[in-house]
Write a structure and sequence with these properties.
Layout lengths: L7 E3 L6 E3 L12 E3 L4 E4 L13 E3 L4 E5 L12 E3 L4 E4 L13 E3 L4 E5 L8 E3 L5 E3 L14 H13 L1
Parallel strand pairs: 1-3, 2-4, 3-5, 4-6, 5-7, 6-8, 7-9, 8-10, 9-11, 10-12
Length: about 160
């Protein structure tokens, strides 16, 4: 059996200290990847592009950083996504709440900021520990997003020039 036919790769809790090897991106038949509870670091951009069958992705409790990769939107069959306990920053991408089969999304304890985008009604979402988030679903109990007068003027100007 070749590794390219591997469907389930669970490497959680091994105290690995490294970046996620690029070779993991060649395991195109993976349906579940669990590398949680390690000390993996860096970004994910070059690894997540070939997982057309991916249903579950556990990257929680590592040291991944940067923006949440837009390549995640290519994982159309994703049902479970846990990115909690890392150092992801920036805004939560709007596509995350609209992946067709996504039922569970955990973005807790990162460094995310800005307005929480809408999610499908059947998605369980956790975002605790991201102190710079606002808006979103009422049950998240986040503060209302404040728009500065500068942002409003800029938006009005764009509207009037179109």
């Amino acid at each position: 059996m070749s590794l390219s036919s591997l469907v389930d790769l669970q490497l959680g809790g091994n105290a690995f200290i490294s970046s996620l090897p690029l070779e993991v991106g060649h395991l195109i038949n993976l349906e579940l990847l669990d590398v949680s509870n390690n000390r993996l670091l860096g970004g994910l951009q070059n690894i997540l592009c070939n997982y057309f069958k991916m249903r579950g992705l556990r990257l929680d409790d590592n040291v991944f950083e940067g923006y949440i990769p837009t390549l995640l939107q290519t994982l159309r069959g994703l049902e479970y996504l846990d990115l909690s306990g890392n150092k992801f920053s920036g805004k939560i991408p709007t596509f995350l709440g609209h992946l067709p089969f996504l039922a569970y999304l955990n973005l807790s304890f990162n460094e995310l900021e800005g307005e929480v985008p809408s999610v499908k009604a059947n998605v369980t979402i956790s975002i605790k520990g991201n102190n710079n988030l606002c808006g979103g679903l009422p049950e998240l109990h986040l503060p209302t997003c404040v728009t500065s007068s500068f942002d409003k003027k800029k938006k009005r100007k764009r509207l009037s020039t179109n």
